[in-house]
Amino acid sequence: MGKNKLSRFADNERFENVFQPDYFTTRDQGFALKGRWAPDFFKNELPLSLELGCGKGDYTIGLARKDRNFNYVGVDVKGARFWRGAKTAIEEGLDHVAFLRIRIDQIANYFAPEDKINQIWITFPDPQPREGKEKKRLTSPQFLERYRLICNPDTVVNLKTDDRPLYEYTMQVVKEQGLQLLEHSDDVYAQMPKEHPVASIQTFYEKMWLEMGKKIHLVSFKLFP
Ligand SMILES: C[S@@+](CC[C@H](N)C(=O)[O-])C[C@H]1O[C@@H](n2cnc3c(N)ncnc32)[C@H](O)[C@@H]1O
Questions:
Q1: What mean pLDDT, rounded, does the chain reach?
Q2: Whose CA is nearest to atom 13 of ligand 1?
Q3: What is the pTM of this model?
Protein backbone atom coordinates (compact mmCIF):
# COMPACT_ATOMS: atom_id res chain seq x y z
CA MET A 1 0.00 0.00 0.00
CA GLY A 2 1.27 3.50 -0.87
CA LYS A 3 2.73 5.74 1.82
CA ASN A 4 0.18 8.39 0.98
CA LYS A 5 -2.73 6.04 1.54
CA LEU A 6 -1.29 4.87 4.87
CA SER A 7 -0.89 8.43 6.13
CA ARG A 8 -4.46 9.21 5.06
CA PHE A 9 -5.72 6.17 6.95
CA ALA A 10 -3.78 7.36 10.01
CA ASP A 11 -5.31 10.85 9.67
CA ASN A 12 -8.80 9.37 9.35
CA GLU A 13 -8.28 7.49 12.63
CA ARG A 14 -7.75 10.75 14.50
CA PHE A 15 -10.10 13.07 12.58
CA GLU A 16 -13.12 13.76 14.77
CA ASN A 17 -15.40 14.07 11.75
CA VAL A 18 -14.61 10.58 10.41
CA PHE A 19 -16.43 7.40 11.48
CA GLN A 20 -15.14 4.00 10.41
CA PRO A 21 -17.31 1.53 12.31
CA ASP A 22 -16.50 -2.15 12.30
CA TYR A 23 -19.22 -4.19 10.59
CA PHE A 24 -19.33 -6.95 13.21
CA THR A 25 -19.31 -4.58 16.19
CA THR A 26 -22.23 -2.66 14.68
CA ARG A 27 -24.08 -5.90 13.95
CA ASP A 28 -23.69 -7.10 17.54
CA GLN A 29 -23.91 -3.86 19.51
CA GLY A 30 -25.58 -1.36 17.17
CA PHE A 31 -24.22 2.05 16.19
CA ALA A 32 -24.47 4.71 18.89
CA LEU A 33 -25.21 7.63 16.54
CA LYS A 34 -28.06 5.88 14.72
CA GLY A 35 -31.05 8.20 15.12
CA ARG A 36 -28.90 10.57 17.20
CA TRP A 37 -26.48 12.21 14.73
CA ALA A 38 -27.76 15.75 15.33
CA PRO A 39 -27.95 15.86 19.14
CA ASP A 40 -24.99 13.59 19.96
CA PHE A 41 -22.44 14.45 17.28
CA PHE A 42 -23.37 17.74 15.61
CA LYS A 43 -24.77 19.20 18.86
CA ASN A 44 -27.74 20.81 17.13
CA GLU A 45 -31.21 19.90 15.88
CA LEU A 46 -30.70 20.31 12.14
CA PRO A 47 -31.96 17.89 9.48
CA LEU A 48 -29.45 15.80 7.58
CA SER A 49 -28.22 15.75 3.99
CA LEU A 50 -26.55 12.50 2.87
CA GLU A 51 -24.21 11.98 -0.05
CA LEU A 52 -23.87 8.32 -1.07
CA GLY A 53 -20.68 7.22 -2.82
CA CYS A 54 -19.21 10.62 -1.96
CA GLY A 55 -15.67 9.90 -3.22
CA LYS A 56 -13.54 12.87 -2.16
CA GLY A 57 -16.63 14.51 -0.65
CA ASP A 58 -16.73 17.42 -3.11
CA TYR A 59 -20.50 17.64 -3.17
CA THR A 60 -20.84 17.35 0.60
CA ILE A 61 -18.29 20.13 1.10
CA GLY A 62 -19.82 22.29 -1.65
CA LEU A 63 -23.30 22.06 -0.14
CA ALA A 64 -21.99 22.59 3.41
CA ARG A 65 -20.25 25.81 2.37
CA LYS A 66 -23.45 27.14 0.79
CA ASP A 67 -26.05 26.17 3.37
CA ARG A 68 -25.59 25.87 7.12
CA ASN A 69 -29.21 24.81 7.68
CA PHE A 70 -28.29 21.15 7.40
CA ASN A 71 -25.82 18.69 8.77
CA TYR A 72 -23.99 16.74 6.07
CA VAL A 73 -22.70 13.18 6.05
CA GLY A 74 -20.69 11.80 3.12
CA VAL A 75 -20.74 8.01 2.83
CA ASP A 76 -18.20 5.90 0.97
CA VAL A 77 -16.43 2.61 1.45
CA LYS A 78 -13.09 4.18 0.46
CA GLY A 79 -11.65 6.20 3.33
CA ALA A 80 -8.54 7.33 1.45
CA ARG A 81 -10.85 9.21 -0.93
CA PHE A 82 -13.01 11.07 1.57
CA TRP A 83 -9.89 11.97 3.59
CA ARG A 84 -9.78 15.01 1.25
CA GLY A 85 -13.27 16.16 2.24
CA ALA A 86 -12.73 15.46 5.94
CA LYS A 87 -9.50 17.49 5.96
CA THR A 88 -11.12 20.39 4.11
CA ALA A 89 -14.03 20.39 6.56
CA ILE A 90 -11.60 20.63 9.49
CA GLU A 91 -9.48 23.34 7.84
CA GLU A 92 -12.56 25.44 7.01
CA GLY A 93 -14.34 24.94 10.32
CA LEU A 94 -17.25 23.13 8.69
CA ASP A 95 -18.31 21.44 11.91
CA HIS A 96 -21.66 20.42 10.39
CA VAL A 97 -19.90 17.85 8.14
CA ALA A 98 -18.92 14.22 8.81
CA PHE A 99 -17.83 11.21 6.78
CA LEU A 100 -18.83 7.61 7.33
CA ARG A 101 -16.91 4.64 5.94
CA ILE A 102 -19.43 1.87 5.32
CA ARG A 103 -20.99 -0.06 2.45
CA ILE A 104 -24.16 1.73 1.36
CA ASP A 105 -25.97 -1.63 1.42
CA GLN A 106 -25.64 -1.43 5.22
CA ILE A 107 -27.02 2.11 5.52
CA ALA A 108 -30.01 1.11 7.68
CA ASN A 109 -27.63 0.13 10.50
CA TYR A 110 -26.27 3.68 10.76
CA PHE A 111 -29.23 6.05 10.34
CA ALA A 112 -32.89 6.13 11.40
CA PRO A 113 -35.94 8.31 10.59
CA GLU A 114 -35.10 10.33 13.76
CA ASP A 115 -32.06 11.67 11.87
CA LYS A 116 -34.50 13.69 9.73
CA ILE A 117 -32.79 12.96 6.42
CA ASN A 118 -34.10 15.71 4.18
CA GLN A 119 -32.16 14.88 1.03
CA ILE A 120 -29.98 12.16 -0.42
CA TRP A 121 -27.45 13.03 -3.13
CA ILE A 122 -26.16 10.21 -5.31
CA THR A 123 -23.32 11.69 -7.28
CA PHE A 124 -21.81 9.89 -10.28
CA PRO A 125 -22.32 6.37 -8.96
CA ASP A 126 -20.88 3.34 -10.71
CA PRO A 127 -23.58 2.74 -13.35
CA GLN A 128 -23.52 -1.08 -13.03
CA PRO A 129 -24.50 -1.44 -16.70
CA ARG A 130 -24.47 -5.23 -16.98
CA GLU A 131 -27.73 -7.08 -17.23
CA GLY A 132 -28.34 -8.94 -13.96
CA LYS A 133 -26.54 -6.19 -11.99
CA GLU A 134 -29.56 -3.84 -11.86
CA LYS A 135 -30.09 -4.40 -8.14
CA LYS A 136 -26.59 -3.02 -7.47
CA ARG A 137 -27.53 0.35 -8.96
CA LEU A 138 -27.95 2.94 -6.21
CA THR A 139 -31.35 3.97 -7.62
CA SER A 140 -32.69 0.41 -7.97
CA PRO A 141 -35.93 -0.55 -6.17
CA GLN A 142 -33.77 -2.60 -3.77
CA PHE A 143 -31.68 0.41 -2.74
CA LEU A 144 -34.74 2.70 -2.54
CA GLU A 145 -36.25 0.20 -0.06
CA ARG A 146 -33.09 0.48 2.09
CA TYR A 147 -33.31 4.29 2.01
CA ARG A 148 -36.99 4.15 3.01
CA LEU A 149 -36.01 2.41 6.25
CA ILE A 150 -34.08 5.51 7.37
CA CYS A 151 -35.98 8.37 5.73
CA ASN A 152 -39.21 10.34 6.06
CA PRO A 153 -42.16 11.00 3.73
CA ASP A 154 -40.56 14.30 2.67
CA THR A 155 -37.11 12.95 1.75
CA VAL A 156 -35.90 13.89 -1.73
CA VAL A 157 -33.41 11.79 -3.71
CA ASN A 158 -31.15 13.50 -6.26
CA LEU A 159 -29.14 11.56 -8.81
CA LYS A 160 -26.42 13.28 -10.81
CA THR A 161 -24.83 11.14 -13.50
CA ASP A 162 -23.02 11.24 -16.81
CA ASP A 163 -24.45 7.84 -17.69
CA ARG A 164 -27.44 8.09 -20.02
CA PRO A 165 -28.67 4.49 -19.44
CA LEU A 166 -28.58 5.02 -15.64
CA TYR A 167 -30.49 8.29 -16.07
CA GLU A 168 -33.14 6.55 -18.18
CA TYR A 169 -33.27 3.56 -15.81
CA THR A 170 -33.86 5.88 -12.84
CA MET A 171 -36.59 7.80 -14.67
CA GLN A 172 -38.24 4.43 -15.34
CA VAL A 173 -38.00 3.33 -11.67
CA VAL A 174 -39.56 6.66 -10.59
CA LYS A 175 -42.41 6.12 -13.05
CA GLU A 176 -42.98 2.46 -12.19
CA GLN A 177 -43.04 3.18 -8.45
CA GLY A 178 -45.41 6.15 -8.87
CA LEU A 179 -42.92 8.54 -7.22
CA GLN A 180 -43.18 12.28 -7.64
CA LEU A 181 -40.61 13.55 -10.14
CA LEU A 182 -39.46 16.97 -8.93
CA GLU A 183 -36.81 17.88 -11.50
CA HIS A 184 -35.01 16.20 -14.33
CA SER A 185 -32.57 17.22 -17.01
CA ASP A 186 -30.58 15.32 -19.59
CA ASP A 187 -28.16 18.24 -19.93
CA VAL A 188 -27.76 20.14 -16.65
CA TYR A 189 -25.33 22.79 -17.93
CA ALA A 190 -27.46 23.63 -20.97
CA GLN A 191 -30.79 23.61 -19.14
CA MET A 192 -30.43 24.59 -15.46
CA PRO A 193 -29.72 28.05 -13.97
CA LYS A 194 -26.03 28.58 -13.13
CA GLU A 195 -26.81 29.39 -9.46
CA HIS A 196 -28.69 26.11 -8.93
CA PRO A 197 -26.62 23.86 -6.59
CA VAL A 198 -26.75 21.16 -9.19
CA ALA A 199 -24.93 23.36 -11.69
CA SER A 200 -22.67 25.22 -9.28
CA ILE A 201 -20.96 22.33 -7.46
CA GLN A 202 -18.84 19.87 -9.41
CA THR A 203 -17.35 16.64 -8.15
CA PHE A 204 -14.02 15.10 -9.09
CA TYR A 205 -15.62 12.59 -11.45
CA GLU A 206 -17.96 15.19 -12.88
CA LYS A 207 -15.03 17.41 -13.88
CA MET A 208 -13.43 14.46 -15.65
CA TRP A 209 -16.61 13.67 -17.58
CA LEU A 210 -17.12 17.33 -18.50
CA GLU A 211 -13.56 17.55 -19.85
CA MET A 212 -14.39 14.56 -22.03
CA GLY A 213 -17.38 16.49 -23.39
CA LYS A 214 -20.03 14.34 -21.69
CA LYS A 215 -23.45 15.69 -20.74
CA ILE A 216 -24.52 15.65 -17.10
CA HIS A 217 -27.98 14.37 -16.19
CA LEU A 218 -30.15 14.99 -13.12
CA VAL A 219 -33.16 13.20 -11.63
CA SER A 220 -34.77 14.54 -8.41
CA PHE A 221 -37.69 12.67 -6.90
CA LYS A 222 -39.59 12.03 -3.69
CA LEU A 223 -38.49 8.77 -2.09
CA PHE A 224 -41.96 7.78 -0.84
CA PRO A 225 -45.00 7.39 -3.13
C1 LIG B 1 -17.44 6.91 -9.58
S2 LIG B 1 -17.08 7.27 -7.92
C3 LIG B 1 -17.84 8.86 -7.70
C4 LIG B 1 -17.28 9.60 -6.53
C5 LIG B 1 -17.83 11.02 -6.30
N6 LIG B 1 -19.24 11.00 -5.98
C7 LIG B 1 -17.56 11.90 -7.47
O8 LIG B 1 -18.50 12.24 -8.20
O9 LIG B 1 -16.39 12.30 -7.67
C10 LIG B 1 -18.18 6.19 -7.04
C11 LIG B 1 -17.90 6.10 -5.55
O12 LIG B 1 -18.88 5.28 -4.95
C13 LIG B 1 -18.25 4.46 -3.98
N14 LIG B 1 -19.09 3.25 -3.84
C15 LIG B 1 -19.51 2.44 -4.83
N16 LIG B 1 -20.30 1.46 -4.33
C17 LIG B 1 -20.35 1.65 -2.98
C18 LIG B 1 -21.00 0.97 -1.91
N19 LIG B 1 -21.76 -0.11 -2.12
N20 LIG B 1 -20.84 1.46 -0.67
C21 LIG B 1 -20.07 2.56 -0.43
N22 LIG B 1 -19.44 3.24 -1.41
C23 LIG B 1 -19.58 2.80 -2.67
C24 LIG B 1 -16.87 4.18 -4.53
O25 LIG B 1 -15.95 3.84 -3.51
C26 LIG B 1 -16.54 5.50 -5.21
O27 LIG B 1 -15.83 6.39 -4.35
A1: 96
A2: 53
A3: 0.97
